């Protein structure tokens, strides 16, 4: 047992655990040690006399991890007693990219054995690590107990570690796995994800077939390509239609129409798969842009800025300040994706945007509902839009009348694209 404890501590000693008790504050960071700490207890201010547990996915396969993590939340919400709060948790090596293992931390106020029964079942049947946390002794120190399966199917506590406070890392853990999990910076990286999904998501095959037939785009287009970006209901459809008419241009969208039959299906998938789908949509649209921009200017309704900004804002938990700094590589443009001549981002106050959403009165997508409910998320999307480079977007005040916005944008296009 002592040897096993040494080896697991060896494995986890460079890792820090982060629990999001409150999305508006920093997570609580802790580490594992063989000896107790003299510093104050990590959970003292956030836990009453509650039982606590943590779960994290144990698999080397990225797709399996993503699918299981998404499904796990639904399963826990359904099966655990209602007094059990499910919080997001990650285990990571501070400031080391691609080191995050996601999980959940449970605060159980139910005082029933139901939670342990559900967790025992999970441990027996699913690729998870399960731990319980106890607070004991005169100095009320916390310890973590790793659960294990015995050969005859019972659950036992295998190893015990002391829980000690850890430093706040320079980079918020949710920023460490953005590249190739939430945002893809080459066609190949996004393509590989869908290829690996063919057996579990049959629709991936049809998407890949379409993508295989995509038109290849040149780096330089003959006519200017102007992308219109912005949050929902900022006026993109209204403006792109009037611009197209005013400039005698061709109107395209990303994702393109040909992906519509599969969009709703991929919207239900975890970020890794969903974002790979949207990334491939941009390459399909790029092929169409290359073709159309031989004959006329092209206006594009959403493109790479939307894909990256929504993905980054969703991935990064908590405060606006947790976003990667401006200039970070996560805001870079994929080297193999056609670059537009100009990107304009329509910006609107949240009150006016809400008014327009209400006037329009259509069904809202889940992400639109999230935008409404979550002012912080909206701010993160807009901030990420503004940090993306190569080309960066130019912000346009979208609050005047449709015609005034059109005139303002035509002036910008004439100035920047010499049209
Ligand atoms: N400049 C404007 N002033 C007032 N209302 C506007 C203006 N532009 C658009 N609208 C109205 O706001 C609503 C949203 O506009 P629109 O559909 O063009 O936005 P959008 O950005 O394309 O939205 P989404 O991304 O959700 O499709 C519509 O009812 C539209 O008529
Ligand atoms: N090029 C694109 C276009 C859209 N998305 C994602 C981002 C949001 O989740 C959603 C918004 O689209 P809308 O509801 O306005 O059609 O689609 C993307 O990732 N990349």
UniProtKB/TrEMBL annotation:
Q: Does the keyword Chloroplast apply?
A: no
> Its Enzyme Commission number?
2.7.4.14
Might you name a Gene Ontology BP term for this protein?
Answer: dUDP biosynthetic process
Lineage of the native species? Eukaryota, Metazoa, Chordata, Craniata, Vertebrata
Q: Reply yes or no: does the keyword RNA-binding apply.
A: no
SUPFAM superfamilies membership = P-loop containing nucleoside triphosphate hydrolases (SSF52540)
Give the family per the record.
Belongs to the thymidylate kinase family.
State the name under which the record lists this protein: UMP-CMP kinase 2, mitochondrial
Grouped into one coarse class, the protein's main location is mitochondrion
What's the gene? CMPK2
- Substrates-to-products reaction catalysed: dCMP + ATP = dCDP + ADP; CMP + ATP = CDP + ADP
What InterPro entries does the record point to? P-loop_NTPase, Thymidylate_kin-like_dom
One GO MF annotation is:
dTMP kinase activity
């Amino acid at each position: 047992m002592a040897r096993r404890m040494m080896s697991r501590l060896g494995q986890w000693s460079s890792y820090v655990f982060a629990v999001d008790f409150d999305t508006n504050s920093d997570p609580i960071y802790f580490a594992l040690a063989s000896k107790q700490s003299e510093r104050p207890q990590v959970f003292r201010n956030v836990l009453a006399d509650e039982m606590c547990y943590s779960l994290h996915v144990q698999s080397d396969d990225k797709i399996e991890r993503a699918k299981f993590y998404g499904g796990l939340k639904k399963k826990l919400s359904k099966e655990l007693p209602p007094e059990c709060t499910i919080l997001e948790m990650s285990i990571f090596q501070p400031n080391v990219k691609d080191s995050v293992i996601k999980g959940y931390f449970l605060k159980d106020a139910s005082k029933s054995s139901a939670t342990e029964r559900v967790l025992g079942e999970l441990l027996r049947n699913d690729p998870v690590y399960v731990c319980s946390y106890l607070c004991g002794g005169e100095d009320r120190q916390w310890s973590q107990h790793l659960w294990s399966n015995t050969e005859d199917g019972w659950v036992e506590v295998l190893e015990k570690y002391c829980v000690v406070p850890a430093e706040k890392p320079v980079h918020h853990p949710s920023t460490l796995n953005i590249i190739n999990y939430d945002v893809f910076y080459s066609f190949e990286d996004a393509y590989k994800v869908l290829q690996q999904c063919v057996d579990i998501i049959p629709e991936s095959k049809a998407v890949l077939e379409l993508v295989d037939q995509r038109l290849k785009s040149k780096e330089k287009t003959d006519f200017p390509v102007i992308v219109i970006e912005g949050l929902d209901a900022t006026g993109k459809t209204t403006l792109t239609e009037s611009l197209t008419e005013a400039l005698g241009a061709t109107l395209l969208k990303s994702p393109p129409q040909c992906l519509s039959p599969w969009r709703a299906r991929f919207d239900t998938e975890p970020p890794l798969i969903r974002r790979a789908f949207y990334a491939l949509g941009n390459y399909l649209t790029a092929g169409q842009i290359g073709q159309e921009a031989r004959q006329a200017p092209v206006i594009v309704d959403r493109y790479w800025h939307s894909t990256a900004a929504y993905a980054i804002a969703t991935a990064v938990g908590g405060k606006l300040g947790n976003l990667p700094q401006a200039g970070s590589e996560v805001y870079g443009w994929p080297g193999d994706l056609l670059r537009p001549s100009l990107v304009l981002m329509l910006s609107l106050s949240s009150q006016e945007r809400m008014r327009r959403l209400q006037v329009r009165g259509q069904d809202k997508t889940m992400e639109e509902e999230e935008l409404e409910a979550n002012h912080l998320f909206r701010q993160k999307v807009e901030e990420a839009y503004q940090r993306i480079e190569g080309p960066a977007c130019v912000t346009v005040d979208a609050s005047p009348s449709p015609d005034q916005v059109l005139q303002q944008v035509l002036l910008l296009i004439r100035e920047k694209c010499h049209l």
